[in-house]
Amino acid sequence: MNVRTASLSKAGAADRVFAEPKPRLDDFEFNKQVVDVFDDMVDRSVPYYGEIQRMVAELAADFATPEGVIYDFGCSTANSFIAIDRYLPEDFTAQFVGIDSSPEMLDKAQQKLREINFRHTCDFRQSDLNEGVAVNNANVALLVLTLQFVRPMHRDALLKSIYDGLNPNGCLILVEKVLGEHSIFNRLFIKHYYEMKKRNGYSDLEIAQKREALENVLIPYRLEENKTLLRRIGFEHVDVFFKWYNFCGIIAMKL
Predict the structure, then answer these.
(1) Which H helix or E strand runs over 50?
(2) All domains of the chain, ordered by start, with CATH?
(3) How far, in Å, are 12, 78, 131, 207, 251 from residue 85 at the CA level?
(4) Contact indicator for 72, 106 with CB cutoff of 8 Å
(5) Which residues pair with 240 in a beta bridge?
(6) For the whole model, what pTM was predicted?
(7) pLDDT in tens, 72-89
(8) How far is residue 102's CA from residue 31's CA, in Å, rounded to a whole number?
């Protein structure tokens, strides 16, 4: 297969959202300030972000069919769609559906796809995943750093909707921040994660303020809890394709 060399079309300024001391820290939200720097934020905050997107794209292309739909729940600025296109055959026209709760994210996603003349059909929808979602004729479903922001009480229902909307032999690709299986591991993993963020130019102040803003918003599970949840929903095959300290990628298949 010929892999096109188009980039993920990153757009936006450098992330300085938490660079200055804030007298009060509100809960983290994907507002315009975050959207404007989002691509830089994930590139510097998520370990091996580019490699994760490449792996997600390769796996999505393995399961994609011209008749089925590729869904991205929490599509943000459409990085996953752009990456997947690189691994689809030249004569393959896909159907994409991007869902996000942030209208600013959806505006940025559409802008990026227009700028690169994205060749596939793409339908963007604003929706709060905590309130449920309709899924139909899906061959691929993506939850890339998204499920961790869904309230735990709503995760089963969301995953059940995705499972029910997947075609036989379809897949769910889940990328999550996770807790360590033991408190010692968890402490070490987090320590090394913050060291990575410092290597990528974040200050102690930025790390501390963002951690506090995310405290009540991003609620991670342990890796085994995520795998158990997927199996409980009905996914017959569940496997890990990426793991770096407190980040993981899981693929689950519906037979």
Answers:
(1) helix 49-63
(2) 32-253 (3.40.50.150)
(3) 21, 11, 30, 33, 19
(4) no
(5) 250
(6) 0.94
(7) 999 999 999 999 999 999
(8) 7
